[in-house]
Known about the structure:
The protein is of the alpha/beta class. It has helices at 11-20, 27-37, 52-64, 83-96, 113-122, 131-139, 156-161, 165-174, 190-199, 230-244, 256-268, 282-293, 327-334, 355-365, 382-392, 411-429; strands at 42-45, 76-79, 104-107, 126-129, 150-153, 180-185, 204-207, 218-224, 249-252, 273-276, 299-302, 317-320, 344-350, 370-372.
Amino acid sequence: MTTFADLGLSDDILKAIQDVGYTSPTPVQEKAIPYVLQGRDLLACAQTGTGKTAGFVLPMLEILGAGRARARMPRSLILEPTRELAAQVAENFEIYGKYHKLSMARLTGGEMMDEQIRALDRGVDVLIATPGRMIDLFERGKILLNDIKIFVIDEADRMLDMGFIPDIDRIAGLLPPLKQTLFFSATMPPEIRKLADRFLSNPKTVTVAPPATTSANVTQKFVTLPQNNDWLKREALRMLLKQEGVKNAFIFCNRKKDVALLHKSLVKHGFNAGALHGDMEQSERTATLDKFRRDEIALLVCSDVAARGLDIDAVSHVFNFDVPFHADDYVHRIGRTGRAGLTGTAYTLVTPDDAKCVAAIETLIKKTIDRETIPDLPTVDESTTRHRHRRDDGRRGGRGDGRGPRQGGSRDSNRRHDGNKANVTDRRHETAPHPAPANNAAPARTREEPAAGNDRFDNDLPAFLRRPPAALK
C-alpha cells in the first residue's frame, strides 16, 4: 500500500499529515502529487469528497518551501468560485503547513479590503482568491502577478456554471508565461475539456472515477409525493427527519427565498436548524458553518452555495427539498455525506413536476435510484393546503402575502355584509307608505326622499359645498 512518504514529501509535511491522523493517500492524491512535484501541468478530475484539495496543497507546500515572497507579489495563486471554498483551502494550508513558515492571504468578497491589502503589502507565498475580488484589487494597483510560479483553477466546472470564465481568462492573461498550471474539477464535460486546453501546456491527466458518478458510500433514495405542494413537502421532510434518526444533515433548496421559509418552518416545529445562502453577510455565513461543525446546529438549510467544498466529516444525511435544476448539482449535493470512508444517506423529495430533472440525474449517473413513499403522509385538499401554507409561513390574513386581510374583509364576509344591507333595505321598504297627497298638494319630503331637481344631491355633499337656502339667493 502506498504511503505519503512514498510520494516524495518532506518530513515537515509528513509530520503534519500524521498529526491529522492520515496514513495513506487517496487515489487522486496518489496520482496527482508526483506530477505536481515534477512541475508538470495537471488536469485532474475526481468526484467530490475524494481529497482533491490536499492533492494540490501538499505538493505546493513542498515546492514553495524554498523561497521568499515580496511585497504585493504573491508566489502562487489559487482561484476558487466561492468564499466558502476559499476558506476551506486556506484551512488546509494552515493544517498541513503548520511546520512551515509560508505566508498566506485570502481575497474574497464580503470582507474588509483594507486587511487584505495589508496582508499583500507584507508579501504572501500563497494567495487564495475569488475572481471578482482578485480583479478589483489588481485594478486598484494593490497586487502584482508577474511572480506567480503556480496557478491553480479549482472547481473548474463550478466556475463555468457561475459565469467566471471571462474573469479567469483575464487573470490568466496577467500571469507570466512560465508557470505551472493545475486544473481541478469534479466533472469533466466537453466545455471543461476545451477550457483546459486553453490554459494547460502538455498536461498530465488524472481521473480517479468516471465523470459525474456518485460515491458508493451514499445510499440514495427518491421519496415520491403525489403533488407539487410546499406544505406537503415540508410535512414529508419533517416526517423523514423524525423517523430517520438524523444526527446532522444538509437540506438543499433551489432558491434562496425557499431557504428562509423552510428554515423558519423547521424552527417553528422545534428542530435545531440554521440557514445558509448567498445573500447572507460573510460573518453570518461563517458563524453558521462553525456552529454546524461544532454540532450546535443539527440541520443546515442551504442553497447550492454549500454544495461544494465544505469538508465537514460525519454528516449522516443529505435532503434535497427541491430536485436540483442541473443534474451535476445533484452529484455535488449528495457528496456532502459519505465522506472520508463513512457511509451516508441522501433523500430527494420528488413530485410529478420533477420528471425531467429526475430523468436527467439518472442519465448522468447511469443509475436508477430507488423510489419510496411515506405511508402515513397526510393528503390535503387545496383549501386546507392554503390554510396550512400560510400557517407554516407565519403569515396572517387572507392575502397570503403577509400584508394582512383584504380591505373590507374576505369575500364571504363581504357577502354577509351585503346580505345584511339587503335586509335593512327590505325592512325599510316594508314600512307604511306615505299618505296620498290631498288636493294635488305636493307630498311632504322625508330624509329618504330629497327635493326634486339638483337639490336632491345636496345631502351627499359637505356643508360648505351645499347650495344656499332659497332665502339667501
